[in-house]
Design goal:
The complex is a heterodimer of chains A (118) and B (253). Chain A is built from four helices and no strands. Chain A is an all-alpha fold and 118 residues long. In chain A, helix 2 packs antiparallel against helix 3. The longest helix of chain A has 28 residues. Chain B is mainly α. Chain B is 74% helix and 0% strand. Chain B has ten helices and no strands. In chain B, helix 4 packs antiparallel against helix 10. Chain B is elongated. In chain B, 38% of the residues are buried. The N terminus of chain B is likely disordered. The chains are: A mainly alpha (118), B mainly alpha (253).
């Protein structure tokens, strides 16, 4: 029972206090947010413009590339991942990687079932 | 709660002093912040998987029924979509500025940023309502009342026809536009639901921020809500080109 534990054991375990994964809290400044905001608006204009040009197979590729770029700068700056611990960076990376694995496996299944008819 | 846990808490409390917002099971406030932030990211990863399923379905059906998806997307107005993208990006910016205001302990600025974010969220939903009601009028909502009229006979829909000069689709392909609109409503609907939940939480936060809640050094809640709001923004960043910009160069047909 808890009250049988010697009272020293309730005190801080140093291993519990020091977190090797801790990153100091970084305050992103308004100027940096403003640059990101401006870039996002420019990219939106760019993606609408690109859609009105006939780029053949590159239309969806350009659209997705711009969307990915926008997503990445939102994650890095608005969501502070650039200034976070490696744990958070790995977690975010692992999430998107797993998503890509799932998409790849699903699509390879669909593609291989009716070979040549995709 | 059993007696023994109550006693354990009582004993430990005597040993470590901590600010009122630090939960007792954390050794330090830094540990609490790290753990909360990590948990928030894990939640967002489940959200990526959730929307990921919809995106995968979209990818496969778009590949199969491309002509139906092109003509379905011509029914959406680029102007509204672009405006909504700008509204949402701006709301992400005001949210980010809200986090900064909380970190700098600027109460007035925080309340202003939260109110702006709240308002822009409502503007987004307002525009979405205009778009949805147009779909309802034209019977482009999947279900018993769905109409393929605009796709088997594009000239009957002069507003869209004059811009894109779409060729009539065969009935079997035209019927697949319903799949496009199903995905359109499922994806933008789930996105809108996330916005509604976000706006409700924002309302709560405005109320609390006015009482000085987040400007005393404890910004975790604002920070983590910011993560949620930016995540919803990212989903839209992908929805916009995928749903609105499939094929917008009519002369290339």
């Amino acid at each position: 029972m808890a009250h049988d534990i010697p009272h020293e054991q309730h005190f801080h375990d140093p291993a519990n206090v020091t977190n090797p994964e801790h990153a100091e809290h970084h305050i992103v400044l308004p100027l940096e947010y403003s640059f990101v905001f401006g870039t996002l608006l420019l990219c939106t204009a760019l993606t609408v413009f690109a859609a009105t040009r006939d780029l053949g197979v590159f239309n969806p590729i350009v659209a997705l590339a711009i969307a990915c770029f926008k997503g990445v700068i939102v994650i890095l700056f608005f969501m502070h991942v650039k200034y976070q611990s490696n744990l958070i960076k790995m977690t975010v990376g692992a999430g998107f990687f797993t998503f890509l694995v799932l998409i790849t496996m699903t699509l390879s299944d669909y593609i291989s079932r009716a070979w040549g008819l995709w | 709660m059993s007696d023994s846990t109550a006693i354990a808490h009582g004993t430990a409390e005597a040993h470590h002093e901590h600010p009122p917002y630090q939960r007792h099971h954390f050794e330090t406030i830094a540990q609490q912040n790290d753990a909360t932030n990590f948990a928030m990211w894990l939640f967002l990863l489940t959200e990526i998987m959730f929307f990921g399923g919809l995106f995968t379905a979209y990818l496969i059906y778009r590949n199969w029924y491309y002509p139906a998806f092109v003509q379905g997307s011509h029914q959406l107005q680029i102007g509204w979509g672009t405006a909504n993208t700008a509204v949402l990006i701006t709301s992400s910016f005001t949210m980010a500025m809200g986090v900064w205001s909380a970190e700098m302990r600027k109460k007035g600025a925080l309340v202003l940023c939260l109110v702006l974010t709240f308002t822009l969220g409502l503007v987004f939903l307002g525009i979405k309502t205009i778009e949805y009601s147009e779909k309802i009028e034209k019977h482009h909502v999947p279900g018993f009342h769905y109409s393929v009229q605009s796709f088997v006979d594009p000239a009957s829909d002069p507003e869209v026809y004059n811009e894109y000069h779409d060729k009539p689709l065969a009935l079997d392909m035209a019927r697949h536009t319903e799949l496009y609109f199903f995905l359109y409503f499922a994806m933008t609907g789930m996105h809108a639901l996330h916005m509604i939940i976000g706006i409700a939480i924002l309302g709560f936060m405005i109320f609390r921020a006015r009482a000085g809640a987040y400007t005393t050094g404890h910004v975790t809640f604002v920070e983590n809500f910011g993560l949620y709001w930016h995540f919803v923004d990212i989903v839209w960043i992908f929805l916009f080109p995928l749903l609105y910009l499939i094929n917008r160069h009519p002369l290339a047909h």
